[in-house]
Amino acid sequence: MTRTGLAFLCWISVLLPLWGQNQRTLISIRIENSTIPSLLEKLDSLSGIDIYFRTEDFTDIKKTFTWKQESLENALAQVMEGTDLIAVPYRNYACVIMPRTALDRSNLTKYYDNLQRSLEEKPSVRTNVIGIGSMGALDASGEVLLSGQVIEQFGNDPIIGANILFGKGIGTTSDENGQFEIRLKPGVREIRVKYLGYQDHIATLDLRSNGQYDVILVKETINLDEVTITAVAKDAAVRETQTGVARINLRNLDKLPTFLGERDIVRAVLLNPGVSTIGEGATGFNVRGGNVDHNLVIQDEAILFNASHALGFFSTFNADLIKEAALSKGNIPASQGGRIASVLEVNLKDGNKEKMRYRASVNPISATFSLDGPLGKNSTIIGGARATYSDYIFGLFQDVSLRTSSASFYDVNFKYSYRKNGHHAGVGIYASNDQFTYGREFGFGYKTNMIQAFWNKLINDKLSNRLSVVASSYKSFQIDLTPAFESRLSADIQYLRAVNKLSAIFGKSKLDVGINAIYYTSAPGSITPQNGSPFVIPASLPNEYGLESAVFINLERPLGKYLDFITGFRLNHFAALGTKKVYLYKNGRPNEEEISGTEDRKGLYQSYIQPEPRVSLKLNLGKSSSLKIGYARTSQFINQVFNTDTPTPSSQWQLVNNYLKPTLSDNLSIGLFRNFDDDNIEASVEFYRREIGRLYDFRDFAKIVVNPHIETELLEGIGRSQGMELSLKKNEGKWTGWASYTWSDSRQKVEGINDGNWYNSSFDKPHNLSLIVNFQPIQRHTLTANFTYSTGRPSTAPLSNYLTPDNVYVPVYSQRNQIRIPDYHRLDLSYNIARSHNQAAKVITSWTVTLYNVYGRKNPFSVYYTRGLNSTPQANRLAVVGTIFPAIRFNIEFL
Amino acid sequence: MKLQITINLFLLTLSMIWFSACLDKIDLDIPSEYDNALVVQGGLVRVGDHAEISVQMRLISDEKGQSRVIRADKALVSNDKGQEVELTLNEEGFYVKSIKAGDGFNIDYGTAFGIYVKSFDGEEYQSTFKILKPTPEIEKIAFRSVTRQVVNNLNQLDSAEFVGLFVDTDVINPAGEKSLLKFDIINSYRYTDQLMGFPPNKVCYVTARADLKNVQLYDGKKALETKLTDFPVYEKRLDYVFSEGYVGTVVQQAIDQETFDYFTQVNELNNREGNIYESPAGRIITNIQNILHPEKKAYGYFYAVSQDTARIGFLPELVGSPARECPVPPSETTPCPVRSCCDCLTLKGASLHKPAFWPW
Questions:
Q1: What's the ipTM?
Q2: Chain B residues with beta carbon closer than 8 angstroms to that of A820
Q3: pLDDT digits (tens, 9 = 90+) for B50-93
Q4: How many angstroms separate the CA atoms of B1 and A355, rounded?
Q5: Domains located in chain B, CATH noted
Q6: B31: which DSSP letter?
Q7: Please, what are the domains in chain A?
Q8: Using omega within 30 degrees of 0 as the cis cutoff, is the peptide bond preceding B327 cis?
Q9: Per-residue pLDDT reduced to its tens digit, A435-457
């Protein structure tokens, strides 16, 4: 109780009350110009009744009362008049001022019992007791809802499956985000949090009303056998019902040999069967033979149009900031959509709550900086920045073109989070900029600016809601530096996204329901001359607009002991919005030779509705094996436009319209998952088949640069993709590793291309192999070998030529994608000395030595064709990494 | 405060020095179906009251990856009247025939023509039938000097002198239809060979098709004009070709849409720069088919056209008196660094005989 300093008159005649005679406790007093809290304090002292109240429930309004032989009950009623509070008596010695909540009879007894318990336990006589909530805020149910998060001391990772105990038989476990919620009776309770490999956390809590309590677990110092702690449960592959899900183990990133020793989550993604990339220098990745734009890449609900920096050598994602990452291939959860092949979902951490931490890294071509820590009592921040300054290195090259080249990027991430009483809200920003030029020939660049806000609410222990809003802008360009033909081709896309997901748990089932909306503004292309080039005619296309929205529902539940089941449904809608200049054609089919006119269409001029059912079944064949079947229909309303052999980050993004319809995909997969040796060895085989409808490919001799009727360059067809993915992992022991092999076949059939026959899709790679072997002879020392192989990509190549009677050479091209460029293969080695776990040390170091591309393979980033003697076609290979790249990474921490 | 510093040292500089180049030429595996693929190409050209048929057979790619002329077992041309004429091989590897109207093979306008070729390994090829249409007449031909901006050897913008040929012509053909036009250019020029320190030797007259990267085309169907005035059909940089007298011949042909598309694609393929942004081209259209094995690809094109020609000649003084190519000083390795200066007959199309149309 608090007292205010006010002048008042009082004369008192008080009969010492017993609250059992509360109605008859008589007050005689005059109090003038007093705030209500002061009044209550006075009444408390006069009546001998303990009056409990919260000062913040009252305003500063002052009142004057004169009571003469007035009962305490009536006096309190007069004081409460005009507020939404009532005085609730308890037995003969206490009274609680609380909101006018309807206390139904079923709660009343429980409420009084719990209140008595709380009053009897006097925390003031105990030491080191942490108070949660306040007496006056006790919920009408008489119970306390305690929520919180369990995280580890270093790295701030959430701990999944920690036991939170409040005595025998009372407790809960932390979920996949490390969060927990439990209803308890108020009073003083001992909390004990346990997790294997960590010291037990024990504390005493005084539970008065709903509140938050977060737990930081400290690792045990291990002197003997090391315990392997993984951020991903070892039997996740067997237990997970969803097919085609690959959860990335972030703890292994340090051991993975990468270019320049940079930790790269996309490299880890590429180790999964069914996932491949064009190679160094290329943007994006391919899943099950799909195009790079068939993958949805998101960071905390923000859609990213580019997954890499600096010619693919750096990932878009700053590994220091990532909490978790998962790739869903084919069978995408109903809560996600908009792409037909996969979803790569990356979530960032919140800052740690303990103290500010800083990391810095510098090397001859790049620097990184990150920080995370608390900001006030309930807030944290986490942020990171990276930048390269590598242009001076190009000057060391012998080749003239390389000497005059340049490449650089920077990116900045920042996230602010606030947590209190089941609310978790925050703001995040991301900004990046990339540029690359090759000699005096060509170049490209792109930049992303993004801001997002989110609000998670734990409504109760069964219900939670997440709302997120994102605004983003992606600008890209490519430049042609040929003298007298210098030009810049730009393409931009912006979007505003809102997504809300309500999650409910009932019994062993989980239900997600939500809504998603994305408003796109696309600037498809503009070309401008550079340096006064006289031979380039400027041209620009008008903006295009579209609204993609979806409602979804996803239910996950077991069907008995042996069967688990996920069913989902997503209803997508796309509205193409004007004003749009639409070209009309004589026969209704887009043909550049048959344009009959144009029409300006305003507002919603075309819409599409795409229902997308999703289902996954898991048959539990025992503790360590399962059989999974999954089906998902997916659709895509925005596609990246490129018909070069190598997609570049500057390729434009095209929305569907009245001529270009959404691409559809039916994805079916079946897999057998089996673990051995107490989940130490994981094995799986998965078969998949995809049927793609309304697949568009460019006709021969297509003109796509700033083309106002690009639909005339595209032909509609179908696609088909099938494959087998094998995976074998060993997680523990001196020798660990991972082998994945994919056999796949990806084809297309488009009338007007290849005489209407099936042909290889642009990213068809029949064989794809990844091998990682780790040898750890002693603790903390690991030697890693990584070998990657994939079949060369298909290409349409000029094979020969002939001379016409007009003395003109005519190149003879192969059929579409009939030829293959050289196979891709590479060996990397690394040696890692991990950081010590000595808690008493003041300085901790770690080392990584990497040899990237050990045998100097010149894997092609792009193959393009020029003319040699007598115009004979000549294939040219542009390899971005053509030699061995050694690197040493030294890490030092000052604690 | 907890501070973590990562220092990434690497031996990149050494690697960069070792690094020689990341752009190099490679060979691709070519499917066997292209090993013996054939090109059948040719045309029927009506000029006045007679028609010249010319057909050639080539191998796409020999052991050196180059295309070469091969002989056919049989080559003939037929029309939609059921008539056919066998073609005979000339010394340049073409199967040719010259047919006059009334010779028993109908060459009237409106008649459709096709070719048939049989190779020595038994494969048979035929073309689709092409309808012969009349061509508009060239009303006027002119020339003039033109200054253009070009990119010099130092990759800089520079100015250079060109000589251009221009025509006035109807776009509507005698049948009243708008035409798709194709232009060929034949250069005829006088060339005197001479060695340094010696007097001029012999004089040759060189007549050859212009060495053009592109085929000159005009789409009369898309244009609003019914007449072309001062239409540029050819440009050549001012050089020795114009130094001793020059006659330019413009050949104008009216072609059909498919033939127009064929030559448009030829131009697109030849204008490709060769960089990573370039869209992959495709297989050029063909109207040649393998009769016995339709699944085997054939290449080439046959067309039937009529043509009109116009000539114009001018002396060097009218275009700025460009310098002759010969004589040239001898080099250390050869007394005749420019072979044609020793013997002008080495030039393609050279002859000691003055052409009949030569005005001087």
A1: 0.81
A2: 28-29
A3: 999 999 998 876 555 667 788 889 999 999 999 999 999 988 78
A4: 7
A5: 33-131 (2.60.40.10), 138-257+307-351 (no CATH)
A6: P
A7: 1-99 (3.55.50.30), 123-217 (2.60.40.1120), 260-541+548-592+613-894 (2.40.170.20)
A8: yes
A9: 988 887 788 899 999 999 999 98
